[in-house]
Amino acid sequence: VFEERRALLGKWFDKWTDGQRRRILLDLLERCSLSQQKFCAKHLQDRVPIEAVDFTTRLPRVLSLYIFSFLDPRSLCRCAQVSWHWKYLSELDQLWMLKCLRFGWLINFCPTPFEQGVWKNHFIETVKELRLGAAKTPSKDEFIVIDVQPVKSKVPERKHPLAAQGTSRGKKEIPPWRSSDRNPTDTVRYNYLDNEHPIEQARQ
């Protein structure tokens, strides 16, 4: 009897529209117990894997803080703008205290367990006191371009014995960085006339 009614229910389900199928599924899920709903959720997760899941909601908080500890202060501030949960994690004292102690920046009081973000505020205020600014590009007059000339040695050059043997035989040996082709086509000629201005090149 169960198999006959199961087959009959399957035939009815095939003839129903999408809206009718959803209503029947909701009714069946409401009639199921908690263990049966967990069974359905497990099979649905196997068939339809969850995508784009926030790893901070799946991993323990210790592992999430360990991942966030590799970020620099600017990246942590950007993570605080993702969601409320990320804002809570990225402002914990466990992250910012290590960054302050790395530079020897200490606080002169002991925060209570209910105070969060104390070390982050201390880091921001200390950086403000340093008054760090962007590097300024000096003017053209401050650049000094020195005319470099090759230094000539007073010691007479000695001819290599292998080179002398080659000239005696009448054969000119090819350097190892050149191929046998006298007119190579795969080389890039560096044109000194196309060089940029030394000041503009230093700015880049």
UniProtKB/TrEMBL annotation:
Region feature (Disordered): 156-204
Protein origin, superkingdom: Eukaryota
Domain named F-box: residues: 53-99
Compositional bias ranges of the Basic and acidic residues kind: 170-184, 194-204
The name this protein goes by in its record: FBX16 protein
Taxonomic lineage: Eukaryota, Metazoa, Chordata, Craniata, Vertebrata
